[in-house]
Write a structure and sequence with these properties.
Layout lengths: L1 E2 L2 E17 L4 E16 L6 E9 L4 E8 L1
């Protein structure tokens, strides 16, 4: 999932929390208490590389995704 200027997240169940971290575990973005089904996160300010995104929904489910910014 390469991204150059933004990431668009969409889900059937609203998101509660989104975190983006570098591979060393440093949290670069945190969005909490969202309660939205669609979210756009600008990424043009990130250096090129691989990042980890943790997505939690309002029902308590979570996903871990690897994202490439270029």
């Amino acid at each position: 999932n390469p991204a150059s200027s933004e990431i668009t997240l969409e889900g059937k169940i609203p998101f509660k929390e989104i975190k983006i971290m570098d591979l060393q575990g440093k949290i670069l973005v945190t969005r909490t208490e969202l309660k939205v089904s669609k979210l756009i996160i600008p990424t043009s300010h990130f250096p090129k590389g691989v990042y980890i995104m943790i997505i939690k929904n309002i029902l308590g489910g979570s996903k871990l995704k690897k994202v490439l910014f270029y």
